[in-house]
Amino acid sequence: MTSPPSGRPMPTVLDQRIETAVGYSIEELRRHRDGGLLDPPHEALADAHRDLVAAERDVSFYRVRLARLASSELPVNQVLFAQIYRTLDQLATAADVREAKQAAAAAALEPIEAAAPRQAPPQIAAKDVAALLAIAQGAKLHEHLVTHRLAVATPTRTRISYAQLQSLEAMGLVVRDTAHPVQAGQPVSLTDAGRAALIAPRRAGPPGTTPLPLPPAFVPVSRTCR
Fold this sequence. Notes:
Blueprint: H1 15-22, H2 26-34, H3 40-69, H4 78-115, H5 126-136, E1 139-143, E2 150-153, H6 162-170, E3 174-176, E4 186-190, H7 192-199
Antiparallel strand pairs: 1-2, 1-4, 3-4
């Protein structure tokens, strides 16, 4: 069986449509799905595409097996005929499964295509990308009981200052669960806009110099840190 290049899944007839609709590669779609960065429609698309790839791999496997059986390497006898007929049945079944998975993936793709063209997510600075990646894995804003300083704690120990958190909040990229007191820790999570900005294609440029176009609704928020 012939495999695709290392790191790239088996190609399908929907790959180009999917990449056009989501704005990045199939490989990135998989990485974002595994990282929990996708909204429900994109998650459904990623899962449907993964199923389609598996079905496409089965079709390829039985096609190669049939080609080997039909080669001149094996003696022509009733055993060979039985193997060919069995492989033909397996190939037909695999093709039927592939058609069903393709239809399911196309159905998952349609609402994403229908939503286009979407407003391009803002390009954000490298330090904000690192902050969003850390927040995506779980983060809480804490207030020190003695000093009353506010700090964001993350599993990766990425440094996120309160001022940076305020900036991300003002841009609508993260949100805090204010139902929890800061003394116990307020959970911080990505908004849909934050996830979209995080997985958006990056413009090329020197590290740390990516420009940050602000969304039209951006209004600077001034808060006093306790």
